[in-house]
Amino acid sequence: MQYAFLGDEIEGSTSTSIFTRYLVEGLRTGNAANETAIITADRLYQYVYEQVLKENPAQKPQFWSFGLSGDLMLARNPSQKLKKLPDEIAELLEDPKPKVRLFGIDELKKLLVEPSFHQAINVALKKLSYDDSKIVSTKATEVQAELEELQKEAETKDEATVEVRPQTPLFQLPVLESKRQPEAEVEQQPEEECKRNAEIHLQTVEECMSQMSGSLELFDTALLETVRQDLVVHLGPIAKVLIKQAAANSRTVPELYERLAEHIPTLAGRAAFLNRGKKHDW
Q1: According to a count of CB atoms within 10 Å of the terminal CB, is the N or C end of the chain lower?
Q2: Three-class SS of residue 76?
Q3: Is the dihedral of CA 244, 247, 249, 255 positive or negative?
Q4: How many domains does the chain have?
Q5: Final residue belonging to a domain, choices 159, 190, 216
């Protein structure tokens, strides 16, 4: 924006340009972050460029950076969506049995890799750190320490200064460093070894696809719900999680029941569960 000054008074008025409007909007709303936690210069430029082009195709903003290495972080996303814990895990954490709550904490730990879950995980772990069961409270405290360490590492990355190389002479573009190694330095694998590795990889992929296909055909939703009803009598809410894990590694219904029976603590319970499986008309 530019004003015309006459003496000590400002004369006239102005409004923001299309470019400035979307620049401010991208930062204020977090739209420029593209559902990530940080707004970088690249993401902001992409957002502004797309919005300006939609409104005025004749205007094409450009982005230049000289001697810059790494992402230039401008701001945190003010509207990053935080996720709630999955209902299955929430039920495990509220279960009256300490062993089930411990299992729930293990499932909770697997979500640490997703930053959008961190706030919900932190709330749940703080509550469990005061659990009546010493084992549960200790486990919750340990996982909470891991969460805090992850958050510290993320903050350190956010606050790290961007490395700037020495300024290049005027009108001379910087030479980009190639990350590729010279061909002479690249260790070449023998042709036979490359073929063997490719065959092993292909075989592994085929086996995984075969197992996934078999599971989808055999274990439909109705069948798994029947199995859950049989198992929930013995194990409670944890049954749903165990069934998902066992189904991924089973090829037949009897095998699925055998795997699940291993989790039932009593012999009588295991026998009753396996008998239920035999009575169903699969």
Answers
A1: N
A2: strand
A3: positive
A4: 3
A5: 159
